[in-house]
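Predict structure. Chain length: 163.
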Amino acid sequence: MALSIGTPAPGFTLPRKTAEGFQRITLSEVLETKNVLLLFFPMAFTSVCTEEMCSLNQGLDFYADAQTEILGISGDSPFTLEAWAQKEGIKIPLLSDYEHEVAKAYDVAYDSFLPQIGLGMGGVPKRAAFVIDRAGTILYAESSDDARQLPDFAAIQAQVSRL
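Prediction complete.
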């Protein structure tokens, strides 16, 4: 079960690859100036993950106006995430949790992802969403074992609007 509302958000520093090079994104540094919508997703280049991130591109102004930074996290390599972002025009910072430590800290890692088709990879992030305020407290938490189920973005936007 994902971390619950009212608990402190586990800190992290994760790499991001862009055309300009590598960056290291630290949650506490982002929280110095903005709230955070943290989105875990299983894998780049998949249809549902692409739908999720591309639809969020269209709503970036709402989150910017609400002083909320969206950060996407998966277990893909930084190179894979950069290639996917370039191919799909994703503007959200995509962070690589290659060792799956952050997904485990937020308790959103599969024990075995897609074993029914023979993958059975452990540690892959579930589709999950967390709204974190500048104090580092989780104000909204959602996680699904069904990788095809998108987060409830209406509920997320309602929470962000209250920040």
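Summary: The mean pLDDT is 91.
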